[in-house]
Amino acid sequence: MTNSPLTILKINSSSRKSGSISRQLSARLVDRISATTETTVIDRDVSTGLSVISEDWIGSNFTPKADRSPEQAKALALSNELVAELRAADVLVIGLPIYNFGVPAALKEWIDLIARVGETFHYTENGPEGLLTGKRAIVTVASGGVPVGSPMDFATTYLTQVLGFIGITDVTYISATGLSMDPDAPIKLAEAEIDALDISQLRAA
């Protein structure tokens, strides 16, 4: 019996289309996985801009599905598409540049559209519980001067919190930081980390 293809959701958020290190590393990571196992890749570039949640969106989201008007269903169409991509994925590969100590605004828009009660998390007597369990996330980080895990890093800590909130608790960061001081060595270290990644563990995660 053969394994089904591994579904990768690749999310890029850098405003730069060329010369982006986070894009370069996320592409290398997907190529590395695809060279080892059969994959299906869902490519989502959020940098092109997503809908910002509005009062109408919030009202639609909190209206029971059976009671939503055609206009409310339309308001949630993109969000539903993004949530479906998440559900389909076995592995998330997220390209994350750190902008002003945090995540890009475009990635925050994606987060706002996928963090939905009843869809990606629900409330229990013990508090909120993520519904997207059994998945793994690998994040390729690029930063000019913010070290990952440092007190000034509000990007990876926030993303870890968000992913855990929706049930994705197995999160790995592969980082190229300090690029403003040394544009070469951090990239080589990140590439070596990608090349050494144990791909066999992805399907079992």
Number of strands: 7
CATH class: Alpha Beta
Helix content: 25-40%
Oligomeric state:
single chain
Shape: globular
The first-to-last residue Cα distance is 20 Å
Q: Which spans of ≥5 residues are poorly predicted at pLDDT below 50?
A: none
Q: What's the pLDDT, averaged over the residues? A: 94
Overall structural class, as computed from helix and strand content, comes to: alpha/beta
Strand content: 15-25%
Tell me the radius of gyration: 18 Å
CATH topology: Rossmann fold
Structure description:
The mean pLDDT is 94. The protein has one domain (6-201): Flavodoxin domain (Rossmann fold, 3-Layer(aba) Sandwich), CATH 3.40.50. It has helices at residues 21-36, 55-61, 70-75, 77-88, 105-114, 155-165, 185-195, and strands spanning 6-12, 39-45, 91-97, 121-124, 127-130, 136-143, 170-177. The chain is globular and about 55 Å long. With 205 residues, it is α/β, with parallel strands linked by helices. Strand 1, helix 1 and strand 2 (39-45) form a beta-alpha-beta unit. It has a five-stranded parallel beta sheet with strand order 2-1-3-6-7, sandwiched between helices. It has a two-stranded antiparallel ribbon with strand order 4-5.
Q: Could you provide a short overview of the structure?
A:
It is built from seven helices and seven strands. By secondary structure, it is an alpha/beta fold.
